[in-house]
């Protein structure tokens, strides 16, 4: 078995926001695939990004980080490429509003959030300082709620007594969503309770609005009803509003002659195989069937199902249809407040918080990561601090790695917009 991955590591995405806000390190929410699979000698992990599919030859072409390519032949192919952040056709927003899908995203957001407080400390009171102490979050789903709550908790607890010129507690966190409530996948009573907790924490909730512009120094939102636009001055915008298929998934759907929905999810048969291609399975976020949710549990169950189908093929048995078992949903809001929804069970407050913690620890890979994460959480509860707040600003002295809080996409965006006769910033090395 060959396992092709563009980062050669497993990342537990539900805890990326805790890495981004300094609670956990990247090592606590990720693990090398080679280390994870070292006892499975029949599994060969390979580093590479799938870029091309030849369905007739049953071959996938992958790109190495140095831009060279190699081929991987297959008898069965399981597509589990996941989704990426969607900007709904406004790709230019990505220059100023990073998403939350990868370790790079988490480290970029960590740099932006903590650097914002540091930069504000160097500025006199006024509009410019206020921009740096204003944080906008687009999207009121679990990730948006979690990151918004964490920034306010960070400002009011961990950073509260560490600065001399600014009061971190004055930081504004604005949460924008096009619906009428946060956490729409949860029961209305739970989402209403979450909204109250966020409001008490100091998060400003704005519903029924769409983001119409994102730029270096602000964000513009438009009311869905009145159509009126409102500008907010901010230097930190975080995007959690939507997802779409990665480019390879779109290419694979075209090559396989499979239909896909607006987000790029590929239509599959009841056994998760692609129509007309029983040797190709699509699992996780990419599987477009019966409203399957884009959650980790669906991907895990889908992987087990695809493996069972292949095993039954080899044994000459008939495949079974995929049946997703909803084990519930959980969302963290702030210390002592979380939601847990599993069938008839509805937990909030401290019971929900404890249940949330148990569920996430259970799904982390590696015993060491589990114990380390529990220890870090206990220390955070006891001391209100964040142990992994280090961020990288560049400044190695190399002209292509300037001293800046901006990411590579910001640098290239600035270069395109630099006025004639002015020096364009150098592109920055990857985080």
UniProtKB/TrEMBL annotation:
Residues 392-431 are annotated as: Disordered. It catalyses: a quinone + NADH + H(+) = a quinol + NAD(+). Residues 2-303 form the FAD/NAD(P)-binding domain. One of its GO terms (molecular function) is NADH dehydrogenase (quinone) (non-electrogenic) activity. Keywords: FAD, Flavoprotein, NAD, Oxidoreductase. Belongs to the NADH dehydrogenase family. This is NADH:ubiquinone reductase (non-electrogenic). It comes from Mycolicibacterium parafortuitum.
